[in-house]
Amino acid sequence: MGRFLAARLWQLVVAVWGVSTISFLLLHLSGDPAALLAPPGSSAQQIAELARRLGLDRPLAVQYAAFLVHAVRGDFGASFTQGVPALSVVLSRLPATLLLTVAALAFGWTIGLALGVITAVWRRGAMEFLASALAVVGQGMPVFWFGLLLIIVFAVRLRLLPSSGYGAPENLVLPAITLGAVSMAGVARMARATLLEQMGQDYVRTAASKGLGFWTVLARHVGRNAAIPVVTLMALDLGALLGGAVVTETIFAWPGVGQLAVNSIGARDFPVVQAIVVVVSAMYACIIMLADLSYAWIDPRIRVE
Fold it and tell me: Which residues of 92-120 are buried (b: 16+ CB within 10 A; e: fewer)?
């Protein structure tokens, strides 16, 4: 277990370093933030002075070395636009993104698992057709279009839910459904395929021959054996939702990390973007590591070494 954790932690560090390095290079190739941040009509000398004050006049290698040294201590510098530590800006937005991600995951997985079980148990019937059609629609509809459609129907036409805002439970409904629909279809397909595979195994027939009911076999035996690929997909989904909430947060004016990333990239606020990349990539890597550790708990035959 110790060697496994050490290897995983090393992989986590390497992954975060690689992602942050790539984002650092791409950001510095995207343009000069000093020219964007300078007041309109500023002279070349004033822009150069602003670049010097922000440390952007130094060679790229020197800036990168300084970034690594300070990032290890959790210091990404001050935000170019807000003048406060970049990490504090990101952490202030993180609870909103976590709330949206957890709500979207709960919605997507609840509906997705239900659809997967329905299509696996009641095959070649009306229930399977309806569930499959719902899953296909959820997978094929673009996020931005689905979000706008929900706003038009439930906020504009029916006036049942707000189209934007943060703080009240009703503000969470439409963004969570929009983001959760992304994972719902994939979960339904994975659950159906895994359940069908396990239901054809010998141990299911043996359990049934001993007099156990169908739902008992499904809950006690099939569900546990089918859990490993489901847990893997859940970990990947959670990381994808966490880092992929940009479109949803923008549509619904949700004050999370995704909206902050869009605004910071547009303003070329390098410190904030770098802090976002490091925080989100570190959380994603930790989620994958926890999923790997859970395999041994789900199936005692698996040894984590």
Answer: ebbebbebbbebbbebbbebbbebbbbbb
Q: State pLDDT tens for residues 157-209.
A: 998 999 888 888 899 999 999 888 878 877 877 777 777 777 777 777 777 77
- Nearest-10 Cα torsion for 190, 196, 200, 206: 90
Q: Is residue 233 part of a domain?
A: yes
Assess if residue 57 is contained within a domain: no
Q: Assess contact for 283 and 277: CB atoms under 8 A.
A: no
Is residue 28 a part of any domain in this protein?
no
Number of structural domains (the chain) is 1
User: Beta partners for 85?
Assistant: 78
Specify the CATH number for the domain of residue 250: 1.10.3720.10
DSSP secondary structure, 140-162, as one string:
HS-HHHHHHHHIIIIIIIS--S-
Longest dimension (CA), the chain: 86
Q: Which two tokens stand for residue 174?
A: 């439409």
Q: Note whether 287 and 243 are within 8 A (CB).
A: no
What global pTM score does this model have?
A: 0.80
Q: Is residue 79 a part of any domain in this protein?
A: no
Render pLDDT for 53-68 as a digit per residue (tens, 0 to 9).
878 788 888 888 988 8
